Amino acid sequence: MRILSLILVVWVQSPVFLSLTVGSSKAKVEVHENTDAVLSCEFKTEKETSPRIEWKKKGKDITFVYFNGKFSGSFAGRAKIEGATVTLHSVTQKDSGEYRCEISAPADHNSLGEVNVTLNVLVPPHTPSCEVPSTVISGAGVELHCRDKLSVPPPTYTWYKDNKALSSTHSPDSSYSMDTAKGTLKFKTVSKADSGLYRCEASNSVGAPKSCVALHMKVIEYQLSMTTLIAGAVGIFLLILMCCLGVCLCNRRGCCQKKEQKGGRTKVSSPPPPPIRNPKNYKHTQSFMI
């Protein structure tokens, strides 16, 4: 009995080492744009009564959010801290990212702890930009584009012709195909029936859909048949061929040489006289008359 009491006394008087613990009640936060975001950070210390609290935002370069008892950079004036939990006011898409809460307790056995919190700011659809050609030729391939790069999550796209939604399901009888994720509307070969007003609508789960202004696409048919075009091309080729043959025959017969006509006879221009040699190279002779 005395031995058991001694063991209990030693156990009560022995120091109990408790590690610094840091955690978060919500590691992933999703909020709408222009609302408040709460980044939770909770900790318990062993002995430290005044731990140092720091918040950082991770990215290409780590930036300070809360350091040395105050907010810094773009977070100054629009954030508050309670304990180690931070609340950001009127968040935008630029605030999305991964944040890290760091607690330093020098007096504790385990003096450093941290936790990560991911913030995702949701953005409703913006008015998309639409690319619709004004004039196309019948039988040609055409591609229409629709883009909204600001919405989070990325939107889905729907194309309208003459204010009627086009089906996104491709069928063998359809003259087009639609990609609702990329916002493209493709025509393999357009016809006159495809002329009309086209607009695109972007939508996601955050807000009301947005649409671009309807643009008119006109399909023009060829005025000349293919037979006429081929016949014209062949005629031009033959004309060029005949001209080349004529030039070759003229060169072979010498009809391109220069000739002079005089007194009804052909007079070929005589060759130029030989050059006069230097008189010093000749011996002078004298003739005597008897």
Question: Can you tag this structure with a few keywords?
Answer:
single chain; 290 residues; mainly beta; Immunoglobulin-like; six-stranded mixed β-sheet; 23 strands; 36% strand; disordered N terminus; disordered C terminus; membrane; signal; Ig-like_dom
Verbal overview:
InterPro entries: Ig-like_dom, Ig-like_dom_sf, Ig-like_fold, Ig_sub, Ig_sub2, Ig_V-set, JAM2. Keywords: Membrane, Signal, Transmembrane, Transmembrane helix. It is a single chain. By secondary structure, this protein is mainly beta. Among the domains are: 104 residues, Sandwich (Immunoglobulin-like), CATH 2.60.40; 92 residues, Immunoglobulin-like. The chain is 14% helix and 36% strand. It is elongated and about 115 Å long. The termini are far apart.
SS elements, strand count: 23
Structural class: mainly beta
What is the string of SSEs from the N terminus onward?
Answer: HEEEEEEEEEEEEEEEEEEEEEHEE
Helix content estimate: 10-25%
Strand order within the widest beta sheet: 2-11-10-5-6-7
Q: What is the 3D form?
A: elongated
Region (Disordered): 261-290
Transmembrane segments: 229-250
Signal peptide: 1-27
InterPro entries: Ig-like_dom, Ig-like_dom_sf, Ig-like_fold, Ig_sub, Ig_sub2, Ig_V-set, JAM2
Give a concise summary.
Helix content is 14%, strand content 36%. The chain is mostly beta strands and 290 residues long. The strands form 6 sheets. It has a 6-stranded mixed sheet with strand order 2-11-10-5-6-7, with no helix packed on it. Strands 13, 15, 16, 19, 20 and 21 form a 6-stranded mixed sheet that branches.
